[in-house]
Write a structure and sequence with these properties.
By secondary structure, this protein is mostly helical. The protein has 13 helices and 3 strands. 35% of the residues are buried.
Length: 282
Amino acid sequence: MSGLTPNEEAQLLQTIEMFEVIAESQADDVQSLEILKEAYSKLGREVDAVRASKRIADAYLHLGQLSNAILEYETILQQHPDDPDVQKALADIEKKAESMTASPMPAEVAVAPKTGEAAAKPSPAVKGASVAVEDGREVMHKLYVDGKHISQGDFDLCWFTPDPSSPPGKVVEPFLQVLHDKNLMPIVDSLRVLCEKSALGYIPLDRYDLDIDLARKFPKDTCLRWCVLPFDRMSKSVMVATANPFNKQAAKELSEATKDRIIWYICPPADMAKALKKVFKL
């Protein structure tokens, strides 16, 4: 723990406590496991860091990403060349390599369109914009309409694309919250679909000691317009809560405010709205 201030140490311990819970409930959440590994390393907890690294490799194996699993195992062997668990795992991978094909996790959800069904219309160009806003409408349509969770009419009724050139002045309710408010799909069900199809981690933000100073470094209008909230930083990554991880416009606006990598986490819209009001004193 050399070089850490008491506040930094406390923050790392709080991060570990939260992400251990997330990783236990979502064993294949590589992002959360990576955060755990780094936090353990910073605290000098080498045994726990190696354990997290093994869990990352196991997650990659379960996801069918053999090359990433091998790379993670070999990273462990660089520091612990005689680790029997890693040696056995690599031997098992070698045996299975001929019959298994590594496949990368899809960057976007692929849901086959159904014959005769209406396709999602791209979000229309808004006033002051020369092109349509890439706010994730198409992918969310595939998830919820093509996935037979709601009708085309319900989708059109609830989807709203804010004007990127206009200050929102308040938190704009995400699509999932509108579905819930109109009794079209309970929030717990829509969040479950989003987590399963996006393969992203879930963060109960109401239980997290969010970094308010970090959040305020990002544009207020961006956070309110798209209901996104940067809530913590780990090394060169910023963790951001969202209810629409496919919103490229939100990602673009956030990326313009930081050089760090953005890591998305799914969060209940009500938790984000409450936190955003606290952060920006609304």
